[in-house]
Write a structure and sequence with these properties.
alpha/beta, TIM Barrel, Rossmann fold, Immunoglobulin-like, 6-stranded mixed β-sheet
Length: 760
């Protein structure tokens, strides 16, 4: 798979649009110094201010354009029409005193024109190379229309599925999360900042945002030292090591200190310990929010606190007042220094120089059309959807369905033909004509020889509290509304008369994402009744769950169950390929799937405690084990793991152990397996989890074929942050290694880490 050229020749930037190689640091510094020497204080403050520009709001658009014309804006977001981008850029470049171009940013979370599966789905592929290619497609499309910066990837660890932004994460595990974080940064940004066809990657939200109390978005976070360093920071470290040019702060307070005003977090940790050298931006309005948190008395003090904490650019609140616009006043009062202001401005100017914006600030609109219509982008989206689906249940091998033998199929559910929901959240310019729904994919696969009956089944309920995206600034998706009683009865009748029923249930895209936390894991509305009515017909039933959360089916057991996430532009085609056996599912869960909401949070990597043999009996009324474990996913084939071995039985601290295992396809079809390696440290200076993922590799094998998979276990995999020592440590200890297809893998062997005995 070519991850450096996601598109055809139409995706290669014109000469001069971006640097052909990384610019020399000294050259960048000199250019920044020259600009900085000419800038007024107001221009400096403006350069580190970013404004929303909702062009649908004329008054706000005029206000923002006035700031641009005065040289008091460094960046804009939410402008995605290339003609508007060129118009606004010309104001900045041709009408202001210094002609400094604007940075245009946008939430390019899982695609731009061509929509990939949502990030949690891409994590379920356990395929970093594919993830990198998917974000390279997104970057190519975004850059072609004039965007320079993605407010992504979101690399927050998510261990509570009530939290809506689970959908943007890679799930609950720091090792998998780190692999996905690095892959996304490489895809967005390429080998260096300013790579042709790429955009600035902005991992977010630093730090701990995914651990909000009760899974309630924006609420406070309280993390132990061990959790912060061992669980929540590794994906950020991986993103930074991959070269991320930007980091976004978090809204909430971390251990009582708002993240956007936390100098220890943004300077000591982010820059000092993790080695970040790009620019830091707030989340929308997070600098002004320091007044809300009660750590700043007014907007001026909020701006001062954010700047001195280490924030280089404020994303000003939409329709609100900028805290950084008050920085000239703070400088005049002696509350900040010119050096502090210049440091932030330098970082933003350096990013613009490295991105080549001074050489080529404008969009080639004809070329943009060619890039957006590149058919190779759709092929990547289809492959991504195929590889991300997780098969959770397949009783009596109902799947794959035999398309040659079928004569009638009932496709039922409110999300079977919902183009907007198939794409998931964070898609603001949805093209329904570009999106293949599940129903459309099934019809295309079966042709005219098979009768395909359809019913939406039930209505999609409205939210009790409106989403922030249900506003005039955003295009609204249609919501299915039917008479539930009569439509459930009709759907059951269709199922009764069909050879197989395919149900597509789940959550609408407006029910997940930012500002979309939920106190229940039940199917919304009357979908559970629809499911049970269809199952009661006795017709073999396949349930496709369109959701990012692990939903609770209340004990109902369809013969086949697949979680298809929100599969994107080519989701329907991919789902049909999977249903009818053109490909075998190979995705794996990136989180434990709980039996019900009362178990949350339920990470697989838990610590041993008193009476560990009774760990699954902590609740007296039901097992505490997950319904489906982390890493789980079925296939149409079967696999065996044998020959787990090490290159030696013992290593010294700092050395690396080589691990080998043989995997064999023992089934009857070509299929993928994700070989997963877990470790457990038996004892040391701190308690360690019962199992921790430390390696994985997705392999494709024909029937009867086998291959040897190798892993390395070195200091990076065996060390951990010790809260007592307040440092990274590697203990001497025996280690158990487990290899298999999920986190309950039974194949095991042991090695030891021991210091060599001193010579006598």
């Amino acid at each position: 798979m070519n991850i450096n050229q996601p598109g055809s020749s139409g995706s290669v930037l014109n000469e001069g649009e971006a640097p052909a190689a990384a610019l020399d640091d000294a050259v960048v510094r000199a250019r920044v110094d020259a600009l900085l020497a000419q800038m007024t204080v107001e221009e400096k403050a403006g350069q580190i201010t970013q404004y929303f520009d909702f062009l649908t709001s004329q008054d706000e658009a005029k206000r923002v354009e006035a700031e641009v014309a005065a040289g008091r804006a460094g960046s804009l977001l939410f402008v995605t029409d290339p003609e508007d981008i060129n118009r606004l850029q010309r104001i900045a470049v041709e009408q202001t005193r210094l002609g400094i171009p604007l940075l245009f940013g946008f939430d390019i979370v899982h695609g731009f024109h061509t929509v990939m599966p949502v990030p949690i789905a891409m994590a379920a592929s356990w395929d970093p190379e594919l993830v990198e290619q998917g974000q390279a497609v997104a970057a190519a499309e975004a850059r072609a229309i004039g965007l320079h910066w993605a407010f992504a990837p979101m690399v927050d660890i998510a261990r509570d599925p009530r939290w809506g932004r689970l959908i943007e994460s890679a799930g609950e595990d720091p090792y998998l999360g780190a692999a996905m974080a690095a892959a996304q940064v490489r895809g967005f940004q390429g080998p260096y900042l300013g790579s042709p066809d790429r955009v600035i990657a902005g991992p977010k939200h630093f730090a701990g945002y995914g651990a909000a109390l009760g899974g309630r978005d924006y609420d406070e976070v309280n993390l132990s030292d061990s959790e912060l360093w061992n669980v929540y920071l590794p994906p950020f470290k991986a993103a930074i090591d991959a070269g991320a040019g930007n980091v976004m702060t978090a809204y909430m307070g971390l251990n009582g200190i708002p993240a956007t005003g936390n100098r220890w977090l943004l300077t000591t940790v982010l820059r000092g310990t993790l080695g970040f050298d790009g620019f830091v931006v707030t989340d929308a309005g997070a600098a002004a929010d320091l007044t809300t948190h009660g750590v700043a008395a007014d907007l001026t003090e909020a701006g001062v606190r954010a700047l001195q904490a280490g924030v280089d650019m404020e994303m000003a609140p939409p329709f609100g007042q900028s805290a950084y616009k008050r920085l000239p006043e703070a400088l005049a009062d002696g509350r900040i220094t010119m050096a502090e202001l210049d440091t932030a401005v330098r970082r933003v100017l350096a990013a613009k120089i490295r991105m080549g914006l001074f050489e080529q600030p404008y969009v080639d609109i004809a070329r943009a059309r060619a890039v957006l219509s590149d058919p190779q982008h759709r092929a990547v989206a289809r492959l991504a959807a195929e590889r991300s689906v997780v098969l959770l249940r397949n009783e009596n091998q109902l799947l794959p369905l035999n398309a040659e033998a079928l004569r009638s199929v009932a496709v039922i559910g409110p999300f079977a033909d919902a183009a907007r929901d198939s794409s998931g959240p964070w898609i603001f310019a949805q093209d329904d004509q570009e999106t293949v729904t599940v129903l459309a994919g099934i019809k295309a696969a079966l042709g005219d020889q098979v009768q395909v009956a359809y019913s939406p089944g039930v209505s999609v309920p409205a939210r009790q509290f409106r989403s922030i995206f249900e506003s005039p600034e955003h295009k609204q998706a249609p919501r299915i509304e039917v008479d539930d009683e009569s439509e459930i009865a009709r759907a059951a009748e269709l199922a009764r008369g069909a050879e197989v029923a395919i149900l597509v249930l789940g959550e609408a895209q407006i029910m997940i994402g930012e500002n979309a936390s939920r106190s229940s894991l039940d199917l919304p509305g009357r979908q559970q009744q629809l499911l049970d009515a269809v199952l009661a017909t006795g017709t073999p039933t396949v349930l496709l769950l369109m959701s990012a959360r692990p939903l609770d089916l209340k004990g109902s057991t369809p013969q086949a169950l697949m979680t298809i996430w929100y599969p994107g532009t080519q989701g329907g085609t991919a789902i049909a390929y999977l249903l009818f056996g053109h490909v075998s599912p190979g995705g794996k869960l990136p989180f434990n799937w709980p039996r019900n909401i009362g178990q949350l949070p339920l990470p697989y990597a838990r610590l041993k405690s008193h009476q560990p043999h009774k760990a699954e009996q902590r609740y007296w009324n039901e097992p505490n084990s997950p319904l489906y474990p982390f890493g789980f996913g079925l296939s149409y084939s079967s696999f065996a793991f044998v020959g787990l071995s090490f290159d030696r039985a013992e290593i010294a601290p700092g050395e690396t152990l080589q691990v080998s295992v043989e995997v064999c396809n023992t089934g009857k079809c070509t299929a993928d397996e994700v070989v997963q390696l877990y470790i457990h440290q038996r004892y040391g200076s701190a308690a360690r989890p019962v199992r921790e993922l430390k390696g994985f590799q997705r392999v494709t094998l024909e029937p009867g074929k086998r291959c040897t998979v190798q892993f390395a276990l070195g200091p990076q995999q065996l060390r951990y942050w010790n809260a007592a020592a307040r440092d990274w440590v590697q203990d001497e200890s025996p280690f158990d290694v487990f290899v298999g297809s999920d986190s309950t893998a039974p194949l095991t062997a042991s090695f030891a880490v021991r210091r060599a005995a001193p010579e006598v």
